[in-house]
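check this one:
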Amino acid sequence: MGKYANLMIALGVAVLTGCAGNEDLPVQKTTQKNIVVEAGVKTRAGFDNSNLPDSFALFITQDAADATSSYNYSSVAMKAPTTGDAWTVGNTNDTLIWKNDAPKATVIAYTLTDNETLTYGTALASGTVKVQTDQTTDANIKKSDFLYYKATNVDPETGGKLPIAFNHKFAKLKFTWTYANELEGTINIGKLYFNTALPLEAVVDYVNDAALTASTTVTGNISAYIDNTNKTAEAVIIPDGTTDTFNVTFTVNVNGTDRTFPCTITLASAPAVGSQQNISVIIGRDKVVMGNVTATAWVEQTAVNGETL
């Protein structure tokens, strides 16, 4: 074999040896996909599927053994889509990528409190969540509606989709009313007000299923939201595990004159997280009488692209 041929063989070996030494170079796997975040709410009053929050915090852990893994994402601010269903990342230029087709990820998401900002990459911890004292407007009852989602062993769905099906983590009191026969004329409920001081803040553990510790010092009275039909009223409260009696005042306009009716609402037990207390009352000439009370899960519709939840 000639010297030239031997030289070519030697060079080829050198090139192959050089390539073999590049084990640390990143390799783009063909199974990797962009994470396409879609969100919905399992329930109503406050937020629902046609009335979603503007943003939420998202945490995705695909490599629990390596805290520095580039496939783990913390404190991602997701922004509501202007078109379509896919939410966009608002506080980093990084693209969210699935590690592979079966990362068995842990996903946590929650809605942000008023004026809360996120620093991308910040680890998950605890925080303070709040309800508004004035819940008479649509905007303020939404501010009082804390949503949370946690799932483990999550794999990408078709097209890399990651559906987020939020749950309400507070409780809701829903009032309906009828009028006694002796009350005649034009009647409207002008205000429903809680005289019982209720927690306005709670410390939330974002890691452990949003466990709440309701404040015993930051308390106040809440004014409920009355819907446009003037047939129901709703208030979002922070469940404290103990309060089961509520002093409520109805302001009723009868034929142009406001009248005030106090009423004591006693539940079978303190409202639980994610529960809805359905309270019916009868409004008479001189008083409000409590009717039936039922407790149900705060779930009233489907979420995330029509999937039943």
Remarks:
- The chain has a mean pLDDT of 82.
